């Protein structure tokens, strides 16, 4: 069974790579800034590294940022735009961080290569670098994304994963972005780093008559549940967070999948991955083989950062990531 599953994963990945190369040829390209801004990738990596050295939570924030940007309007930095009723206004985005890293890299790039590197490319490359800095694989991604000019709070809720989603709801949303069941399992591995507010998994518990929390979701490991209830008791401040991964919270590894099999997935949307036969097999494969996870991560991340990209004459290259040029 294990050999058959890995063969299937490799076959799907190979088919994807052929399709992706064809796609890239028409819009994005590798080394897009080789002539116009040869130091672009180094500047972005140095910025991410500098911020991460003083704040170890930065990689997780940047990874979450790229997800929330690409799933709404495509990978076009629409999440960076500020103002009334923009994407940042939606409650689901108020806890997204890492904006200062993107803005800092953009300021440096504007000094060396004015009006050349898009905020959308900075977000994608910063997330890519964040994964490597946290211990994950180093991968190449194509560039040439342009920045969008539309950012509406009303577009957020229908396009991002809620932590209480069922398997069917997640599959449907990922499919709408051109992402497969394999991509869903692989990209869920992003939860191997980062933090979450207590409210994001509150639905897995209930209060008794005395206001004390009790475990409602019996799929969650009882000992892990006790730890969560201690860290997030009833009436806890909204700002309190816990680690997505209770084992190696700052390291991008395959521990997320091992936690799932031990019934220690933080969100309901994590736990459902082992309640489905097709996804459980993949979870087991990645839990047993970190290299396999990393190989698949590289390909699924390429697909994620290519969702709805704008290129050519569509969009613009913003001077400031917080506002359009007009």
From TrEMBL:
<keyword id="KW-1015">Disulfide bond</keyword>
<keyword id="KW-0349">Heme</keyword>
<feature type="disulfide bond">
    <location>
        <begin position="37"/>
        <end position="113"/>
    </location>
</feature>
<dbReference type="InterPro" id="IPR010255">
    <property type="entry name" value="Haem_peroxidase_sf"/>
</dbReference>
<feature type="disulfide bond">
    <location>
        <begin position="70"/>
        <end position="75"/>
    </location>
</feature>
<keyword id="KW-0575">Peroxidase</keyword>
<feature type="binding site">
    <location>
        <position position="69"/>
    </location>
    <ligand>
        <name>Ca(2+) 1</name>
    </ligand>
</feature>
<feature type="binding site">
    <location>
        <position position="76"/>
    </location>
    <ligand>
        <name>Ca(2+) 1</name>
    </ligand>
</feature>
<feature type="binding site">
    <location>
        <position position="248"/>
    </location>
    <ligand>
        <name>Ca(2+) 2</name>
    </ligand>
</feature>
<dbReference type="GO" id="GO:0020037">
    <property type="term" value="F:heme binding"/>
</dbReference>
<feature type="binding site">
    <location>
        <position position="87"/>
    </location>
    <ligand>
        <name>Ca(2+) 1</name>
    </ligand>
</feature>
<feature type="binding site">
    <location>
        <position position="253"/>
    </location>
    <ligand>
        <name>Ca(2+) 2</name>
    </ligand>
</feature>
<keyword id="KW-0106">Calcium</keyword>
<comment type="similarity">
    <text>Belongs to the peroxidase family. Ascorbate peroxidase subfamily.</text>
</comment>
<dbReference type="GO" id="GO:0042744">
    <property type="term" value="P:hydrogen peroxide catabolic process"/>
</dbReference>
<feature type="disulfide bond">
    <location>
        <begin position="198"/>
        <end position="232"/>
    </location>
</feature>
<feature type="domain" description="Plant heme peroxidase family profile">
    <location>
        <begin position="27"/>
        <end position="325"/>
    </location>
</feature>
<comment type="similarity">
    <text>Belongs to the peroxidase family. Classical plant (class III) peroxidase subfamily.</text>
</comment>
<feature type="binding site">
    <location>
        <position position="245"/>
    </location>
    <ligand>
        <name>Ca(2+) 2</name>
    </ligand>
</feature>
<feature type="binding site">
    <location>
        <position position="192"/>
    </location>
    <ligand>
        <name>Ca(2+) 2</name>
    </ligand>
</feature>
<feature type="site" description="Transition state stabilizer">
    <location>
        <position position="64"/>
    </location>
</feature>
<dbReference type="GO" id="GO:0046872">
    <property type="term" value="F:metal ion binding"/>
</dbReference>
<dbReference type="InterPro" id="IPR002016">
    <property type="entry name" value="Haem_peroxidase"/>
</dbReference>
<dbReference type="GO" id="GO:0006979">
    <property type="term" value="P:response to oxidative stress"/>
</dbReference>
<feature type="disulfide bond">
    <location>
        <begin position="119"/>
        <end position="321"/>
    </location>
</feature>
<feature type="binding site">
    <location>
        <position position="78"/>
    </location>
    <ligand>
        <name>Ca(2+) 1</name>
    </ligand>
</feature>
<keyword id="KW-0408">Iron</keyword>
<feature type="binding site">
    <location>
        <position position="72"/>
    </location>
    <ligand>
        <name>Ca(2+) 1</name>
    </ligand>
</feature>
<protein>
    <recommendedName>
        <fullName>Peroxidase</fullName>
        <ecNumber>1.11.1.7</ecNumber>
    </recommendedName>
</protein>
<dbReference type="GO" id="GO:0140825">
    <property type="term" value="F:lactoperoxidase activity"/>
</dbReference>
<dbReference type="InterPro" id="IPR019793">
    <property type="entry name" value="Peroxidases_heam-ligand_BS"/>
</dbReference>
<dbReference type="InterPro" id="IPR000823">
    <property type="entry name" value="Peroxidase_pln"/>
</dbReference>
<keyword id="KW-0964">Secreted</keyword>
<dbReference type="InterPro" id="IPR033905">
    <property type="entry name" value="Secretory_peroxidase"/>
</dbReference>
<feature type="active site" description="Proton acceptor">
    <location>
        <position position="68"/>
    </location>
</feature>
<keyword id="KW-0560">Oxidoreductase</keyword>
<feature type="binding site" description="axial binding residue">
    <location>
        <position position="191"/>
    </location>
    <ligand>
        <name>heme b</name>
    </ligand>
</feature>
<keyword id="KW-0479">Metal-binding</keyword>
<dbReference type="Pfam" id="PF00141">
    <property type="entry name" value="peroxidase"/>
</dbReference>
<feature type="binding site">
    <location>
        <position position="74"/>
    </location>
    <ligand>
        <name>Ca(2+) 1</name>
    </ligand>
</feature>
<comment type="function">
    <text>Removal of H(2)O(2), oxidation of toxic reductants, biosynthesis and degradation of lignin, suberization, auxin catabolism, response to environmental stresses such as wounding, pathogen attack and oxidative stress. These functions might be dependent on each isozyme/isoform in each plant tissue.</text>
</comment>
<keyword id="KW-0376">Hydrogen peroxide</keyword>
């Amino acid at each position: 069974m294990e050999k058959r599953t890995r063969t299937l994963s490799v076959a799907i990945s190979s088919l994807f790579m052929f399709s992706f190369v064809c796609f890239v040829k028409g819009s994005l390209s590798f080394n897009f800034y080789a002539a116009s801004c040869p130091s672009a990738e180094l500047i972005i990596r140095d910025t991410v590294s500098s911020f991460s050295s003083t704040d170890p939570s930065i990689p997780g924030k940047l990874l979450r940022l790229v997800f929330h940007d690409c799933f709404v309007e495509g990978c076009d930095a629409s999440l960076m735009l500020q103002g009334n009723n923009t994407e940042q206004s939606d409650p689901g985005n108020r806890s997204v961080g890492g904006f200062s890293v993107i803005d800092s890299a953009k300021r440096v790039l504007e000094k060396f290569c004015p009006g050349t590197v898009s905020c959308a490319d900075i977000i994608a490359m910063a997330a890519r670098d964040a994964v490597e800095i946290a211990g994950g694989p180093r991968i190449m991604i194509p560039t040439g994304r342009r920045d969008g000019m539309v950012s509406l709070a009303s577009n957020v809720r229908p396009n991002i994963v809620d932590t209480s989603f069922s398997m069917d709801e997640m599959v449907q949303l990922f499919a709408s972005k051109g992402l497969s069941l394999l991509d869903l399992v692989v990209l869920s591995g992003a939860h191997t780093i980062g933090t979450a507010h207590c409210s994001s998994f509150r639905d897995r518990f209930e209060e008794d008559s005395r206001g004390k929390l009790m475990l409602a979701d019996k799929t969650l490991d009882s000992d892990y549940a006790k730890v969560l209830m201690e860290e997030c008791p009833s009436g806890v401040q909204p700002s309190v967070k816990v680690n997505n991964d209770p084992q190696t919270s700052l390291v991008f590894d395959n521990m997320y999948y091992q936690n799932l099999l031990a019934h220690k997935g933080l969100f309901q949307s994590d736990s459902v991955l082992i309640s489905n036969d097709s996804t459980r097999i993949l979870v087991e494969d990645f839990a047993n083989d970190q290299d396999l996870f990393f190989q698949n991560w590289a390909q699924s991340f390429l697909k994620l950062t290519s969702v709805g990209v704008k290129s050519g004459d569509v969009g613009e290259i913003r001077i400031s990531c917080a506002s359009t040029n007009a």
